[in-house]
Design a protein that fits this description.
Layout: E1 4-11, H1 18-26, E2 44-49, E3 53-59, H2 69-84, E4 87-93, H3 101-110, E5 117-122, H4 131-140, E6 147-150, H5 159-169, H6 187-202, E7 212-220, E8 226-235, H7 238-245, H8 250-267, E9 270-279, H9 287-292
Parallel strand pairs: 1-3, 1-4, 4-5, 5-6, 8-9
Antiparallel strand pairs: 2-3, 7-8
Helix pairs in contact: 6-8
């Protein structure tokens, strides 16, 4: 049997479960997750390899109407991924009976591409049985999809069905990554994303999206099995800095502790994590800061 491999873009509006689905498919925590929209800011590649195939899933930022240069970058990366893919997984929610404004914009872009598009109707675990068929009908009437899969990324229902369909559309190809790899992201990038995830989970809505994380130092100790990581959290207002630090440093300690625990599980070794908070007003519209945080031109 010939070896098959390819790149599959995972797209959808913010907060439909793209990262949750990718983590479930890979069996690893590749993409950070939070209940807040626009959690993913860049294209993250997750890798699934077996003896007959290698799937590279591209977790894209949620497509939305951008309100800053960071938002423009996020949407640009998501749209670019469509043209580079061998197939596309388009995720919607089972609670939606028809496309809204953002989904209509996404479908308009999907109509113009050549790769096959699989419609995934997610969150079936929280939708009523009557609503799921209505959702499938509402979206299927907008364009012709290669296949339609109702599933729950959270509990794994029908995820294996989706995986089989993805394997079916892969072209013959080479093994792009080592079979043990589950992501192409550098360790520094993963560390920054894990810290940002904890900010998203622990703080109020207006603060997390005005924060960015830069890893300023990432070193293995020569004499001990420990990784030393220094990171700076950027925020846009002095008041946000106070909230990020918390009373007597309590919030910053909580962010650091939870991030460190996840990083130790990922790296399989002790992690010594130091966090600082700095104010950079309107950093999401400053090209120099965006480049430093990995959101610049490639």
């Amino acid at each position: 049997m010939a070896f098959k491999s390819g790149f599959i873009a995972v797209v959808g509006r913010p907060n439909v479960g793209k990262s949750t689905l990718i983590n479930k498919l890979t069996g690893q925590k590749v993409s950070i997750i939070s209940p807040k929209p626009q959690t993913t800011r860049n294209t993250i590649r997750a890798i699934i390899t077996d003896k007959n195939s290698q799937i590279i899933l591209m977790d894209t930022p949620g497509i939305h109407t951008p309100k800053s240069k960071l938002g423009e970058f996020m949407v640009k990366k998501a749209v670019e991924s469509l043209n580079d893919a061998d197939g596309v997984v388009y995720i919607v929610e089972a609670m939606d009976s028809k496309p809204g404004k953002t989904d209509a914009m996404i479908i308009e872009k999907l109509r113009k591409i050549k790769p096959p598009v699989i419609l995934v109707v997610n969150k079936c675990d929280v939708a009523t049985r009557k609503r799921i068929p209505k959702s499938i009908e509402g979206f299927s009437g907008e364009m012709e999809f290669y296949e339609t899969v109702p599933l729950s990324a959270l509990n794994g229902e029908n995820v294996d069905v989706l995986l089989g369909i993805i394997k079916g559309i892969l072209p013959e190809g080479v093994m792009y990554f080592d079979p043990d790899d589950f992501t192409d992201q550098p360790e520094r990038t993963v560390a920054a994303e894990y810290i940002r995830e904890k900010i998203l989970l622990l703080l109020r809505d207006e603060i997390p999206h005005g924060t960015g994380v830069e890893i300023t130092s990432f070193k293995d100790r020569d004499d001990k099995n420990i990784i030393d990581i220094d990171a700076t959290i950027y925020c846009e207002r002095k008041s946000h800095k106070g909230m990020l630090i918390g009373k007597n440093g309590s919030m910053l300690k909580q962010i650091g502790t939870q991030a460190r625990e996840d990083l130790e599980k990922l790296f399989g070794t002790k992690v010594f994590l130091k966090l600082w908070v700095k104010v950079k007003e309107d950093w999401r519209n400053k090209n120099s800061v965006l480049r430093d945080l990995g959101y610049g031109k490639e």
